[in-house]
Amino acid sequence: MVMSARTKKLFKKNKLDSHYNPKIFTDTEPLYMQLKKAILEDIKDKKKGYKIPGERGLIDKYKVSITTVRKTISLLEQEGVVIRRHGLGTFVCNSKIPVQGKIFRVHLGMHYTPDKIFHNEVVEQFQKKYNNIKIISAEGLPYDRVDYSDVDVVQYARIFDKNNVQDFLPLNDIYSTKFIENELNIKRFSPKIWNAMKIDGKIYGVPRVYSPLVMFYNKKRFDEEKIKYPSQNWNWNTFMDYTIKLTNVKKGKYGCAMLPYMVNLLPFLWQNNTNFVAEDGTITPDGVEAMKFFIDIFNISPVLPNERWGMFELFDKFIQGEFAMFPWTSSFLCYLKNKAPDKKIGILPLPQKKKKVTLFSIEVYCISKFTKHPKIAFDFVKTLTNSDSQLRLSNLGRFFVADETVLKPDVDEIFSKELKYSKMSSLAGNKQIENIIYNFFMNLHKNKNFDITKECKQLEKELNFVFQLQNNKFKPINFYG
Q1: How confident is the model at residue 142 (pLDDT cuts 50, 70, 90)?
Q2: 92 strand-pairing partners
Q3: pLDDT (tens digit per residue) in 428-455
Q4: Do 33 and 150 contact (CB within 8 A), yes or no?
Q5: For the stretch 224-242, what's the b/e string if a residue is b when 16 or more beta carbons lie within 10 angstroms of its beta carbon?
Q6: Neighbours of 191 (CB within 10 A)
Q7: Which one is predicted more confidently, 27 or 230?
Q8: Which of 23, 344, 408, 409 could form a disulfide bond with 219, CB atoms 3.0-4.6 angstroms apart?
């Protein structure tokens, strides 16, 4: 049998032999799912306690990578088919192999303690209601690494656009729009948030939490430098002034962690009354000015991105006072409450320029278009997002839930006010554009003697090239970032 180009690429990547078992390697579905089916076929007549081949044995037999083997065994263990005993091996523990279609998989966020507690509670509650199926709850991978062909319900963290909803089942393909709106009681949600769930009249998700981007500041750092706290109406000039005063590179102290990502850049462009690119594909003079301000902040307070940092490492460095300010969403408060509730942390709107505006992010629950249980999936999403669940999530410490009837006035009011001035953009999180922007600012950081106008002209060409590729057009798209 002749290998396809995709299969050859997989062999090269995983350093496998050039021959392969055609029973496993096809291009129709993920390798780990094909391996799972093969193992189930091999053990269907085996009794409980039968020892299956080890990792090396499976690699040699099926010519797959160790990553594929481990993912497959973990999946079989989650489903109760096998059990791993350290130092002894992997054994069949369920002689009745699960019937295809009887498994209901949910892929939920587990990064924060409140999320983990909440999701485990809902899964347990839902399992009692649907005792004829087995619910498998997986630890949340980044949304762009989820295999949607192997999941029923997934938590998603991007603004919807036509390019990123192809793997999701519109809710109004399951029930009528009127039924959905009544069942979910959408009056609980801000119109801005609910409308973000829709593309061309199709409803692709239900909101769980959302938050405008705000500026957090460490009051202890300000107190140490004997600097007054910023006011609610601060502007770019005062922000720059604070950044300079609070930065001492020799001591490892920085004014602001303004990492070079789209989520941080976009609000500064909007505040200067411009979009990411104009309708004709150019970066306007106001856009150039915003870019210059952004790189100046970055160069004055060079908190450089570190591949070893995760989100929590960034949070810890801020709490410890390594940098005095950083822009983030309300999710930081969730971490702060559990990690350092006694820390003096302030919250401000982003500094303003020509207009007051910020960006908001959102987390939603979606149904995979590959689900075999669409109505059960809808019921699960409804259970996750009803008022009782939203109140429970809020009480656990997850600030700013989507249901406005359960908002807490003490903290949530700050974010609720900022929502009025917030915009959304699917550019934040677009990998190609993120990479271009990251490299753009890192190059300007290394080369201090740059002409920002010339650099932005070069950036236009790269961005237009990406837009053309993404939209199959040979001209810049009308993209209002």
Answers
A1: low
A2: 82
A3: 767 788 888 888 988 888 777 889 999 9
A4: yes
A5: eeeeeebeeebebeebbeb
A6: 9
A7: 230
A8: 344
pTM above 0.85, yes or no: no
Kindly provide the b/e burial profile for residues 277-287, where b requires at least 16 CB atoms within 10 angstroms of the residue's own CB.
bbeebbbbebb
Distance CA 102, CA 137 (A): 14
DSSP string, 411-429: HHHHHHHHHTTEE--TTTT
- In angstroms, the Cα distances linking 375 to 98, 183, 450 are 21, 13, 57
Distance CA 62, CA 82 (A): 19
CA nearest to 428, candidates 309, 262, 191 = 262
Torsions phi, psi for 254 (to 5 deg): -130, 150
User: Which stretches of 116-266 are assigned E, i.e. beta strand?
Assistant: 134-139, 153-156, 198-199, 202-203, 206-212, 214-218, 254-256
d(CA 184, CA 196): 15
Length of the chain: 481
Structure tokens at 352: 């303003």
Task: Please give the Cα distance from 45 to 49 (Å, whole number).
Answer: 12
292: closest CA among 283, 280, 279? 283
Residue 214 DSSP label: E
Q: Which helix (H) or strand (E) holds 59?
A: helix 55-62
**308-324 burial string, b = 16+ CB within 10 Å, else e?**
eeeeeebbebbbeebbb
- Asked whether the CA dihedral 238, 241, 246, 247 is positive or negative, the reply is positive
